């Protein structure tokens, strides 16, 4: 029974993730994202979680958090993937993502309480993205989703962020 449930989850996730395939109008410009490779004196610290319908909080324990330069390409990409929202139940994908875009993404992993930190960042506009999923009794699909926020980081700033899927 567990094997069948896992197979259904994998197939549903593949199907739903495959539903979002789009050609972006904007090409990725590595020069526009170059600031992510510069050493800076700013930092972003925060906590990521989602709230269940009953009010319980589910923290993003052990999840990857992505820090992405908010270039024209990245903004268009997130608008398409998240359909104008900052939350998507199933982590969407775009095929043929340029390797130079992927190289410009910094990552960290949250602690058990969903806390994360990026240190020595240069000033700029960034997208911070992560996900939180949990099992729901008597359901074959997980609940939760992938979510992000946009931040503007100033030189020397120590920005505190709450990622809550809103």
Can you tag this structure with a few keywords?
disordered N terminus; 166 residues; five-stranded antiparallel sheet; Immunoglobulin-like; alpha+beta
In short:
The protein has 166 residues and is α+β, with helices and mostly antiparallel strands. It is built from 3 helices and 9 strands; from the N terminus they run αβββαβαβββββ.
Descriptive notes:
19% of the residues lie in helices and 38% in strands. It has helices at residues 2-18, 72-81, 99-103, and strands at residues 39-51, 57-59, 64-69, 87-88, 106-109, 115-121, 124-134, 143-153, 158-163. It has a five-stranded antiparallel sheet, covered by helices on one side. It has a single domain (2-163), classed as Immunoglobulin-like. It has three helices and nine strands.
Would you tell me the structural class of the helices and strands?
alpha+beta
What's the CATH H-level homologous superfamily?
Answer: Immunoglobulins
Question: What oligomeric arrangement do these chains adopt?
Answer: single chain
CATH topology: Immunoglobulin-like
CATH class: Mainly Beta
The end-to-end distance, rounded to whole angstroms, is: 35 Å
Strand order of the largest sheet: 4-8-7-3-5
> Could you list the spans in which at least 5 consecutive residues all have pLDDT below 50?
1-18
- Overall, the morphology is globular
CATH architecture term: Sandwich
Computed Rg: 17 Å
- What is the tally of beta strands? 9
**Content of β-strand:** 35-45%
What does the main sheet amount to? 5 strands, antiparallel
Q: State the helical fraction.
A: 10-25%
Order of helices and strands: HEEEHEHEEEEE
Number of helices: 3
As for the number of domains, it is 1
């Amino acid at each position: 029974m567990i094997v069948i449930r896992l197979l259904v989850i994998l197939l549903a996730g593949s199907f739903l993730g495959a539903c979002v395939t789009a050609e972006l109008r904007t090409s990725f410009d590595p020069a526009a994202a170059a600031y992510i490779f510069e050493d800076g004196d700013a930092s972003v610290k925060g906590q990521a979680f989602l709230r269940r319908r009953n009010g319980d909080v589910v923290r993003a324990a052990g999840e990857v958090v992505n820090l992405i330069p908010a270039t024209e390409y990245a903004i268009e990409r997130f608008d398409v993937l998240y359909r104008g929202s900052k939350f998507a139940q199933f982590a969407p994908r775009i095929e043929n993502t340029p390797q130079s875009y992927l190289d410009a993404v910094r990552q960290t992993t949250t602690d058990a309480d969903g806390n994360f930190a990026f240190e020595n960042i240069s000033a700029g506009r960034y997208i911070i993205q992560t996900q939180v999923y949990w099992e729901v009794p008597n359901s074959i699909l997980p609940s939760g989703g992938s979510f992000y926020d946009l931040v503007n980081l100033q030189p020397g700033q120590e920005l505190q962020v709450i990622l809550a899927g809103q």
